[in-house]
Amino acid sequence: MADKKVIAVVGATGAQGGGLVRAIQADKDSRFMARAITRNVNSDKAKALAASGAEVVAANVDDEASLRRAFEGAYGAFCVTFFWDHLSVEREQAEAAAMARAAKATGVQHVIWSTLDDTRKFIPLDDPRMPTLHGKYKVPHFDGKGEADQYFRDAGVPTTFLLTVFYWDNFIYFGSGPKAGPDGTLALTMPMGDKKLPSMAAEDIGKCAYGIFQRPDLIGRTVGIAGGHLTGEQMAAGMSKALGVPVRYTDVPPEVYRSFGFPGADDMGNMFQFKRDFNEYYCNSRSIEFARSLNPALQSYEQWLAANAKAIPLG
Ligand SMILES: NC(=O)c1ccc[n+]([C@@H]2O[C@H](COP(=O)([O-])OP(=O)(O)OC[C@H]3O[C@@H](n4cnc5c(N)ncnc54)[C@H](OP(=O)(O)O)[C@@H]3O)[C@@H](O)[C@H]2O)c1
User: What is the pTM of this model?
Assistant: First the structure.
């Protein structure tokens, strides 16, 4: 125990970080031990982590001093931000910068920054194919993370930049599941045309991150992972089979998706359009084979559905 290297995990009670903590704990011969970071060490989830053997420490990504305390003595740090909690690129970037500085100050030897592409490198702000949002972004929750890569580089932190993908869990927790249309038939609506959406079980992101911490040769590199590359038709067909009720795929133009009215619909509409229109790049940058090399237990969409389809709300 004493000679194990500590991995400090931001978001340890959540999807990505939680998967990483569980991956470390599941490997009884691990050279690593998890330090779970939470804002509230007394929450039920935090207590469950402590009961499972993780060291649990309090920190807030908005409080750099607390991050320094949480990273102190750690070999590795898994860094993630929580865009959908506040919808602010500026806040997300301040949090990323604070994590980079805290990692530098404490001498962390391997950081994983959970990032996404800066889509403005593909579709400049003056390109009228999709609206510019908040004056500065095409896909705010992507662009802010991609721009924040530079904070880790500028701080001189040994970092692996991890490009993640759409979670299948969004069908359960993020309102992205199928909805009944006017004729009562369930429809999975995404503006992806016939293009493939790289996607995966959220739990596998953490498992892949665990694989990355065992690969110091990946420091300084940008790597992308996925559990599947699936068209909307394939996703809907998989759901139909797993649920035993018809689910059809409905392709809508991105401008229609942007007008759906939920918070961040414009961001999500631009996101899907980016993934559709730059599909070759997007798929090539998220490799299923590479993800499986990091995490041999990588779930396929069918495996994920077999375990989780019943939890998808149908409405
Ligand atoms: N949904 C997708 O398909 C998808 C795909 C790719 C990337 N992403 C990105 O993933 C990120 C979210 O990661 P996730 O899904 O793992 O999050 P999550 O499941 O929502 O978990 C967030 C956890 O982080 C903690 N947290 C929240 N605010 C915090 C703060 N200020 N300081 C410290 N901890 C805080 C919370 O724990 P406590 O309450 O215990 O503190 C919470 O349990 C977003 O930035 C999103 O853009 C999402």
Answer: 0.98
